[in-house]
Amino acid sequence: DAKTTQPNSMESNEEEPVHLPCNHSTISGTDYIHWYRQLPSQGPEYVIHGLTSNVNNRMASLAIAEDRKSSTLILHRATLRDAAVYYCILRDVSTGFQKLVFGTGTRLLVSP
Amino acid sequence: NAGVTQTPKFQVLKTGQSMTLQCAQDMNHEYMSWYRQDPGMGLRLIHYSVGAGITDQGEVPNGYNVSRSTTEDFPLRLLSAAPSQTSVYFCASSRKTAATEAFFGQGTRLTVV
């Protein structure tokens, strides 16, 4: 399983943009980049995923480096509800069942 | 939509007892899986299934059994509970195409005393 590296924690103020980085230097051509988040006492929740191009959805944006060795999850205006642990995960879609390999993620703290 | 439903939400067991954690999904997903999450750590895969009648081991399968008789249900059995199995358990489901999202249940918090 290709490995990802994320900072342990980040802080933000409410209503400010947040950029959560992820390094994945050993990514393969068939790996999708997925982001999940886990709110306190809840199960992980899908945020966004992408392969090569930047992606936007109602929750966030995903910016993928041209060489695909890093990516950044962008929350455009952080709210208190966005305080969670964010996981960057690579999923190889080339064969069979692809387990989600969770690291320790980035704990995002949002201050009022 | 109900999504992925896990029961019970909380459970306390004595060492040596057995029990079954229930997981059901109503999205007709082929893939289902069980993870455990220990304090301060990410999730680790216990068992998974790619369809009814097909199961396989993940990275931490010892002490757990699974079966998949229907598409909707994927129960996790603890054969003889041990304190080391104290954890939060999450069930997940997804479509066969892994470029899509996985859906997780709310978790079962299990304490073995």
Description:
The complex is a heterodimer of chains A (about 110) and B (about 110). With about 110 residues, chain A is an all-beta fold. Helices cover about 0% and strands about 45% of the residues of chain A. Chain A has no helices and 9 strands. In chain A, the strands form 2 sheets. In chain A, strands 1-9-8-3-4 form a 5-stranded mixed β-sheet, with no helix packed on it. In chain A, strands 2-7-6-5 form a 4-stranded antiparallel β-sheet, with no helix packed on it. Chain A starts with 8 loop residues before the first strand and ends with a strand. The mean pLDDT of chain A is about 90. The mean pLDDT of chain B is about 95. The relative contact order of chain B is 0.33. By secondary structure, chain B is mostly beta strands. Chain B is globular and about 40 Å long. Chain B starts with a strand and ends with a strand. In chain B, the strands form 2 sheets. In chain B, strands 2, 4, 5, 6, 9, 10 and 11 form a 7-stranded mixed β-sheet that branches. Chain B has no helices and 11 strands. The chains are: A mainly beta (about 110), B mainly beta (about 110). The interface between A and B is medium-sized, with 25 and 27 residues.
Order of helices and strands of chain B: EEEEEEEEEEE
Largest sheet of chain B: 7 strands, mixed
Structural class of chain A: mainly beta
Structural class of chain B: mainly beta
- Give the largest interface: A-B, 25 and 27 residues
How do the strands and helices of this protein lay out in sequence?
The complex is a heterodimer of chains A (112) and B (113).
Chain A: E1 9-13, E2 18-23, E3 31-38, E4 45-50, E5 55-56, E6 61-64, E7 70-75, E8 84-92, E9 106-111
Chain B: E1 4-7, E2 10-13, E3 19-25, E4 31-37, E5 43-51, E6 54-57, E7 64-66, E8 76-78, E9 87-94, E10 102-104, E11 108-112
Parallel strand pairs in B: 2-11
Antiparallel strand pairs in B: 1-3, 3-8, 4-5, 4-9, 5-6, 7-8, 9-10, 9-11
